[in-house]
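Comment on both lines for my students:
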Amino acid sequence: MITIAIFVSGSGTNCENIIQYFRGSEDVSTALVVSNRADAFALERARRLAVPAAVVPKSQLNDPDIILPLLQEFHIDFIVLAGFLPMIPDFLIDAFPRRIVNIHPALLPKHGGKGMWGHHVHEAVKAAGDTETGITIHYVSPVCDGGEIIAQFSTPVSPDDTPDTIADKVHILEMQHFPPVLHTVLQQL
């Protein structure tokens, strides 16, 4: 059994989708949800789904004496970033080599890097006049949004699309593709 922790900063729709996807699985268990924000609705989603959750502010995330024992306590094998905004510290990447993945709401390398998350990305896609956007699932590296790409899925962008409609299209891709791609990666461990 592979145990995963999901790191999340916001509402947690991807987090809930992943928990539901692996519920009852014989090979993957969601053991912990971690948020850097005490007010993240993802914590409520985890509570409703009976998954333990922890609030780990950025200062504690960057402290190996706090975050590593927490992950060890829950026997975490793999970390999934699902809308988690802080940069992952190098010591955590070293402790989980090729065992931390992230989802980005654009087709990297376009519209990636510091400050490019959520609505900022969809606004950049619209401003650039892109004719497609999508999601990128990638391994986490010390470079923001620079890790090896695992999978990408695209959706067309029309001139009539707004950042909100682009966000809706991207969200559909996230819900459809993120859990099965994770499952494939986890089966290769």
In short: The radius of gyration is 16 Å. Strands lie at 2-8, 28-35, 53-55, 78-81, 100-104, 132-139, 149-156.
